[in-house]
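Long-time lurker, first post. I've been practising inverse folding by hand and with some scripts of my own, and I keep getting stuck on stretches where the structure tokens seem ambiguous. Below is the full token string for one chain I'm working on. Before anyone asks, I'm not after the true native sequence, just a reasonable design that respects the backbone. If someone could post their per-position residues I'd love to compare against what I wrote down in my notebook.
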């Protein structure tokens, strides 16, 4: 599903964020990406949805070599990769329904199809009754649920979650993890960058630790391994 071979990332200021990354993530896996601040986790994650491009090496997502992808085809790639952010990134002037529907409207889906799929997805994350609310009328946990709904509305094969519980209280964070586990159980590959030691140590999954731009650990059922 996701493969990186000898990937390096050097920024114009000379900083080498990633160095010699070799990793394979199979279809249906749930993978935590952990490591200290500044270790290269964000760059590692952004490579997967081509927010960043490697300086060298190859990245393949679901059979597509990202280096061969023309800019006009990047939106098509991202239809198959859902992304959830720590700060939600919802459009503040759009309702919950409109935020989730936006990805389908870009594809010019029929209005009846959009309404059905959006309401089904809102039901999945437990917020069908908040369809007409604006983002600032919701709690942080509810906003993250909407962010997840928007990310999965196109049934992506891969879901990238970048610190999805970082702005949430512990109880709400566990609720978000329940949703992510359910998505994963339906066959979606999930890659989640996190600093949440309790979640990583309790919900055992594969752990990839990034330190100083390299893969320091890759454990099938690993632990967090760092002090917060």
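-- Answer (accepted) --
I ran through it position by position. Result:
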């Amino acid at each position: 599903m996701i493969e990186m071979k000898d990937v390096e990332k050097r920024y114009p200021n000379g900083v080498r964020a990633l160095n010699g990354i070799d990793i394979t993530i199979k279809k249906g896996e749930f993978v935590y990406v952990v490591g200290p601040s500044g270790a290269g986790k964000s760059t590692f994650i952004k490579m997967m949805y081509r927010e960043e491009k490697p300086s060298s090496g190859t990245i393949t997502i679901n059979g597509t070599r990202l280096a061969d992808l023309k800019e006009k085809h990047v939106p098509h790639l991202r239809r198959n990769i859902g992304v959830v952010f720590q700060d939600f990134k919802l459009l503040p002037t759009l309702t919950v329904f409109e935020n989730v529907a936006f990805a389908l409207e870009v594809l010019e889906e029929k209005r009846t199809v959009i309404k059905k799929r959006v309401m089904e997805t809102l039901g999945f994350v437990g917020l069908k009754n908040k369809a007409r609310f604006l983002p600032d009328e919701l709690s942080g946990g509810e906003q993250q649920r909407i962010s997840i709904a928007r990310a999965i509305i196109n049934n992506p094969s891969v879901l990238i979650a970048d610190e999805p519980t970082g702005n949430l209280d512990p109880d709400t964070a566990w609720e978000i993890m329940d949703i992510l586990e359910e998505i994963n159980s339906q066959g979606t590959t999930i890659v989640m960058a996190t600093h949440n030691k309790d979640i990583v140590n309790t919900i055992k999954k594969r752990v990839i630790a990034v330190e100083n731009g390299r893969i320091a650990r890759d454990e099938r059922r690993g632990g967090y391994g760092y002090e917060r």
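A couple of notes from the structure itself: The helical segments are 41-48, 74-79, 96-106, 111-124, 140-152, 170-185, 197-202. The mean pLDDT is 93. Happy to go over any region you disagree with.
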